[in-house]
From TrEMBL:
Pfam family membership, one: D-ser_dehydrat
Domain of life, source organism: Bacteria
UniProt keyword list: Lyase, Metal-binding, Pyridoxal phosphate, Zinc
Cofactor: Zn(2+); pyridoxal 5'-phosphate
GO molecular function, one term: metal ion binding
Residue ranges of every copy of the D-serine dehydratase-like domain listed in the record: 254-368
Organism from which the protein derives: Paraburkholderia terricola
Protein name: D-serine deaminase, pyridoxal phosphate-dependent
Family classification: Belongs to the DSD1 family.
Keyword Metal-binding in record: yes
Amino acid sequence: MKLDHIDTPAALIDIARMQKNIARMQGRMNALGVAFRPHVKTTKCIDVVRAQIAAGARGITVSTLKEAEAFFAAGVDDILYAVSIVPAKLPRALALRRQGCDLKLVVDNPTAAAAVAAFGDQHGETFEVWIEVDTDGHRSGITPEQDTLLEVGRILHDNGVTVGGVMTHAGSSYELHTPQALAALAEQERAGCVRAAQRLRDAGIPCPAVSVGSTPTALAVGQLEGVTEVRAGVYVFFDLVMHNVGVCALEDIALSVLATVIGHQADKGWAILDAGWMAMSRDRGTSRQSHDFGYGQPCLLNGTPLAGYVVSGANQEHGILSLTWATGDEGGHADDIAQRFPIGMKLRILPNHACATGAQFPEYHAVSPEGNSVEWRRFQGW
Ligand SMILES: Cc1ncc(COP(=O)(O)O)c(C=O)c1O
């Protein structure tokens, strides 16, 4: 289908950009000598993940058991569920393992570790668990020097659970924007995770996998000694937040929302779009960064960014396109906006946060360089 025939709003994937992003990350990981395990929560789309695996990815990372179930059903069997497991979810994890899925669970506390051990014992299942390490204080995990690390390791190891490794995610990288700061955090992430693995091994607890990663640190890291694999998710599409972090150009962003101009408020210098926050998501991640992109960066249908314009406001199904706040007097351009953006004109809007925007849609329209599109399904729910 041609872009002109797609109902709006719609989520578009620029296949050429996506393939370039996949090749860039996989090429880096190959050069650094580590395995790459993409986080599929960004896309929740088997077509995208097939392209990542074809490029060399080994296994996937998921953020929900629904993703694990859906990707296992689609033929992927090496899966890291990278959110600390709660006991109520163990029956679903067990069902996956019984079907042959090499599902690895994550814990970061003694209670969860004991629950996995008890449940495994009760059901005669040897679960594999990775211990989450906190290397930057931004979210969950056990810091490398905490006694709890060895306590959790022992609860697992002594009770018949396989300790598969340690994993960390330096998500505070999203708050940085210089190559030096990113490289320093990437090294902190690497060193902290390697140190946690070493402490476990020194205590007699096997720890084969050392897994690190976020898109910014994966692209900034200089060396990965002691690391066995890297995880990254949003790199496959990139977005405006990543652009502000400094790891991609606007021209690398592979996800956009196709929208139609539906009206004007000429005195205010606004064009009204049929893509509001229901399409773009409420994510305003760039509002805390050096360049605030509002609800998104408008582009022409061919992908060329419309410099100086922004989606400055959003209601549920209405977006407001205007000149950027920085340019000042919007009223002076009132005539221009109606002429430049006539009713019926279609635009592509780059998102702040690709994971959040993608989640608004049940499917993507994957667009080839020739401008033809096919539908790629996307999973939803938990
Ligand atoms: C545990 C874990 N690993 C990896 C990632 C991938 O990070 P990014 O999307 O920055 O590549 C995430 C993202 O939230 C995560 O939570």
